Amino acid sequence: MKIALIGQSFDKNSGQGIYKFSSYLYENLKKINKNTNKIEIGISKSSSRTIFNNIFMSFFKTIKTKYDVYHFMMPEIALPCIFKKPSVVTVHDLIPLIIKSERKSSFNFYFKFMMKMAKRASHFIANSKSTKNDLIGLLKIPERKISVTYLGVDHKKFFPLKKKKHKKFIIGYVGGLGKRKNVEMLLKVAKKLENENVLIKIAGKGPQLNK
Questions:
Q1: Is 153 within the bounds of a domain?
Q2: Chain center to CA of 90
Q3: What is the mean pLDDT of each run of 10 residues along the chain (211 residues)?
């Protein structure tokens, strides 16, 4: 079976979780099926250029290819789903449809449009039950077309450490510091606790880093 993975980037060192996910999926799927190839759409610092790449480059880079299955790493690049080819779309969240203030209205409109195109996919992979419920509730996608597959972990880098006794109860967060991650809620909880035996450590970068 010939499989194509279509993504913006497959750079696991970019710092972006979705690109790391795409890279690991490609590497491990390649071990199982040698006929697995990747099609890289490209990324840009310009939002308008990114949208252009997502819509048109995904189209032009796949239109003349012949694969048995097309797997799109995100719905924003899934325009080719309009063609009757076996396709899978991975959906990590539907934030632009839920928290509209997170992005510009133009991006929300674009995301909504691309989701309509992506709805024509043969199957969807949701990374959580919550995302699955959103696909069903917001986009009316039949439950039979959705599979929940949780994100994996590289056990060479992440593994249990020997337990150490701490006087304080430590809560840690590592990830992006954007509004949609709702790290602010963690800080509000810490303020309400006012417990010197509870230590909260936050690591990451993003627009809310200095807030």
A1: no
A2: 8
A3: 94 83 94 95 84 86 91 90 89 85 78 88 95 94 95 82 78 80 82 81 78 66
